[in-house]
What we know:
The chain has one domain (about 15-50, about 110-415): Pectate Lyase C-like (3 Solenoid). It has two helices and 32 strands. It has helices spanning about 1-15, 70-75; strands spanning about 45-50, 80-85, 90, 95, 100-105, 115-120, 125-140, 150-160, 165-170, 175-190, 195-200, 210-215, 220, 235-240, 240-250, 250-255, 265-270, 275-280, 280-285, 295-300, 305-310, 310-315, 320-325, 330-335, 340, 350-355, 365-370, 375-385, 390-395, 400-405, 410-415, 415. Strand 1 (about 45-50), helix 2 and strand 2 (about 80-85) form a beta-alpha-beta unit.
Amino acid sequence: xxxxxxxxxxxxxxxxxxxxxxxxxxxxxxxxxxxxxxxxxxxxxxxxxxxxxxxxxxxxxxxxxxxxxxxxxxxxxxxxxxxxxxxxxxxxxxxxxxxxxxxxxxxxxxxxxxxxxxxxxxxxxxxxxxxxxxxxxxxxxxxxxxxxxxxxxxxxxxxxxxxxxxxxxxxxxxxxxxxxxxxxxxxxxxxxxxxxxxxxxxxxxxxxxxxxxxxxxxxxxxxxxxxxxxxxxxxxxxxxxxxxxxxxxxxxxxxxxxxxxxxxxxxxxxxxxxxxxxxxxxxxxxxxxxxxxxxxxxxxxxxxxxxxxxxxxxxxxxxxxxxxxxxxxxxxxxxxxxxxxxxxxxxxxxxxxxxxxxxxxxxxxxxxxxxxxxxxxxxxxxxxxxxxxxxxxxxxxxxxxxxxxxxxxxxxxxxxxxxxxxxxxxxxxxxxxxxxxxxxxxxxxxxxxxxxxxxxxxxxxxxxxxxxxxxx
Length: 472
């Protein structure tokens, strides 16, 4: 009953869209809660134009009287309902606490480029239809006393050649950033990371710095990492210290090739977060010179997390990771279901990889891993290690098309271990003995399988991420 209630609550909060290896889409979109929505440029009362052919002695209020650079913007106090439109290539924009929100975009039918955008201790910004090259986008909160800055939309944007492509960062306790939508964004050719949220980490604190961060329809790739002797680098999307967050319909690939440190990197992951969802995503060809280079991960203190309908393949590390690092908060209520992993853990891990470095007994509770399809040639499809002594860890109804190793503290039952003759992208064939042969689970299992079929079509569930439907 506890599992059912938690899962239903989280899915209600984080209903999203999905698509990967031809699955049927989920049409709901993630809700945004908190402040009032910010308006589009057409509704803005004041529009300023900036063009390489302009003049900073102009008033900037028409195309004919455009400014030439970002200098007038960086020196003004931005009023509410202001739009800045650009044509050409420009230096960085910097907004502070005296600025009151703005839309940053390109002239109609053009694509401008800015060196970077920094937003410090202020709210209400839309960044759309523009490229950011070299310094990335940074939204920062240095305020104290549980203060949130809020309402940020980043859409139809490309960010490249930065240290971190998009960084959401806060300095103090539970002060942070709220209500962020990142949609249809590409982040690539960066060094340290792609899209990050970070806060003040303290395993004893109550609450989280950030809330309502939602990423969709985006790509993060060629994030190289570097020879950092103190921490991992080269992560695609790494969100931490956030509650109510989702990553959907998003790809992360070719990341981490120069990372030399263990503990990461991963294509798409959360750590120290609560009420989070990774759905309909693809993570592949992620590498590492150290450990990891994994596809997906719930790590270090995630509570109420769901990974579903994701496709992981050809990663150096494991496909789907769930685990704890030393000093993390307790991990609870994790669901990994209806995912597919193919040819992962090229150098380390397992297609599904459970680990516990916390050094504390029962640091993980209520971990449910079911109806996944894990395909390997000779490597491990499942691995759990490091004194994995935790409470209520259930692995059931999965297909392990390869080898596995298991801790005796993991409840491992009603799984298929062995070769399967798949058809049409890891579906079961008409005569498969895995159809109508798994265990019916007595908790909420979701409405559909990976491919959009109902999650139960016969008397019993099928093994793996595909539920057979007889269409003859």
